[in-house]
Amino acid sequence: MPHTHKRTPFDKFAKMLVSELQTDERKALRDLVSDVRDLYEAFSAEYMADWRTKVAEEEKEQHKQERPKVVQKVEKACKEVGLEAVARYYPVESNYYDWPLQQRAFRLLAPSEAHMCKSVIMYIAPVNTQKLMHFARDLKERTISKKYYNFRLAPTEVSFELTGFEKGGVCPIGMDQPVPVILAESITKLDPPVLFIGAGHIDWKLALPVQDFIKATNCMITDLA
């Protein structure tokens, strides 16, 4: 069944790319983006205080039966790890990934481009076993230096086998296999502290408060910059 989405002030720009704007219009847009980012940071506390209210409102407006089964799988997993009250789901257009990142951020009403996160499945080789053992002994230690790892992107078919999610919809919550989750340290510094990720389906996105995500996934944090 095709999904519908709540119209936003940015819908009329959905078919317009930044590259199609005139030079002065692009500059005006960049200035606007900067102002919006500053505004979000200034009202960060209020933004987060209103988060749970927005979750409840959106759940009433969206029909769960219209969500693809794979999104319902993510929704179930979020409920199991205590994220149900803070998880916000967004259906997007089929050409969403043809848009520039900033336009996608506008579509989701994300505070900035930096809040738009991507989940990728990686091979890690070699593994520093001493560091891993230290981490296992001290579960309060969540920071591991990137110098101990060599990351390689997993093939699409391997990613699907591990997660059950197709390309463009990979979500670190609700994966078929217990894949360890590593979060970029820069995400912990976002303000407001929220992240936007795939919701299991290429046409659906999920937003969560960063600290709730960290607590629920028991993820490791490292500098990936």
User: Could you tell me how far the N terminus lies from the C terminus, measured between alpha carbons in angstroms?
Assistant: 40 Å
CATH topology heading: YbaK protein
**Spatial extent as radius of gyration:** 18 Å
The tally of helices reads: 8
Q: Overall mean pLDDT score?
A: 81
Could you say what the CATH architecture is?
Alpha-Beta Complex
Helix content: 25-40%
Q: What composes the largest sheet?
A: 3 strands, antiparallel
In the residues, how many domains can be counted? 1
Strand order of the largest sheet: 1-6-5
SSE run: HHHHEHEHEHEEEHE
Q: State the total count of DSSP E strands.
A: 7
What gross morphology would you assign? globular
Uncertain regions spanning at least 5 consecutive residues: none
As a percent range, the share of strand residues is: 5-15%
**What's the CATH first level?**
Alpha Beta
Structural class: alpha+beta
CATH superfamily: YbaK/aminoacyl-tRNA synthetase-associated domain
Protein name: YbaK/aminoacyl-tRNA synthetase-associated domain-containing protein
GO molecular function, one term: aminoacyl-tRNA deacylase activity
InterPro entries: YbaK/aa-tRNA-synt-asso_dom_sf (IPR036754), YbaK/aa-tRNA-synth-assoc-dom (IPR007214)
Organism: Syncephalastrum racemosum
Task: Summarize the structure in words.
With 225 residues, the chain is of the alpha+beta class. It has a single domain, classed as YbaK protein (Alpha-Beta Complex), CATH 3.90.960.10. It contains 8 helices and 7 strands; from the N terminus they run ααααβαβαβαβββαβ. It has a 3-stranded antiparallel β-sheet. The protein has a two-stranded antiparallel ribbon with strand order 2-3. Strand 5 and strand 6 (204-209) form a beta hairpin. It is globular, with a radius of gyration of 18 Å. The relative contact order is 0.17. The model has no long low-confidence stretch (mean pLDDT 81).
